[in-house]
Amino acid sequence: MSTALSTLTEALVSPDPRGAFSGVKNAVAGVLKDLDPHLRVVTTGYFNHSHVPDMLLHWPGQDSTTDRHLHLRTTRIRDELGGDLQLLDRGNRPILLCLGALDDGTDLLQAAGRKDALLLDVPALEVLVGAARRSVALRLTVSDLVEHRSGVFDGAAATQLVRQASSRPASGASEASTRRLGLVAEHMPDLLRRYRTEESYARSFPLGTPTATETTGAGRVDDLALRLLLHEDEPDPAVLERTAGTVPFEQILEQSVADTEGLQRLARLGLDQWQARACEIAAEYGTGSPWRWTLDGGRLALHGPGFAIRIADRAGALRRDREYRQPSLDALWERMSRAPGRLSQVTLVRGTQKVTYGGAGDAIVPSVLQQIEGSLGPDASVSNAEVVASSGARLLLNFRRRSATVRRPRSGAPLGELALLCACAFLDPSEVDSGRLAAVLGADEPHALGELPHGSNSELQ
Asked: What topology does CATH give the domain 3-165?
């Protein structure tokens, strides 16, 4: 039994009712995190209420319409739980958790299906927590159950779910299953051999099979197969290369993954292949080992020592929740001398005064900028700049927010180039190990964070 389940058992027999309520909620939240580490649990001030949830379950990267309401129930009688189901809103995709073992009464499968509800008991939780620790495939099966599925699972049903999810491919797969398996096999042959197929997966969910992601856009691959790959500890290099060249960046951003080895290797391969539109550099401390990639909230993030580079496909996905000191013109020149791009426009400010300068044909004349700076005064700083990256993408830099966006609609910049250029523009040389950052971002050209290429910003110095 897991620590969280043990805590739940102790809380259920607490002699203090008020303490028991709080203890049970905290313990249930711990169990849910065991089932899906990416899940965010928000507790309410209610307990065992008829229709107000005890907890709200939210998955990073999803909007609030995908949240689930969790209701704790002290009864184990199915007839009573069936009545409770009728009071709940289908739109909230409710989860009823029986704080005990369900009795052998009424079959509630259809009632749960009508409400898009999931009914679990404590023995089922114990089975699911144990399964989630056994393999990647079972962990994803369990997290998918909690996030998406409806049905009724006591200890016996949960055991059957785990057994079926671990089974070998079955013969006689349906046409839909065969099509979906073909998509998985095309991109993830090794995973298909090692894990359960969609047919056995479908039998695990009495109220319907998972929706196949077959025609949601050119280049998209099966979501289940992509999740399996991202959670792999030793992914096959050939599978990774095919995936990096096939999966659009938008589909990658829909996932929520900690710093797994599968994500690290796939991100490195995608640096030159994926196109991104927005990036920010945020101060960050105490987040674990540096130079690791994560996916969360629609952003791919590289965590460095003391900072994080967050990359997205739209500006609205950036946090931009802090303000930073704007650099002087001299500091900007020093930073941009290391960047894989050139300045084409600069905005200088001092108090309420603001002057924007862009040279003819995108050619910045240093003496003109120096004159503008001199006219504004010694406290002048750079608020914005436009940079033409090596790929030709035009980026608008905001130094107060330390963010960059691609200016032209429906266009992007290579992910690695965008991240490297932002790091050069927004971080002082003292804040980053230039050689390590260039290596992590795949910048093996000599000018990247080092010697300057012809036509760069070297003439500004």
From this structure: Restriction Endonuclease (3.40.91)
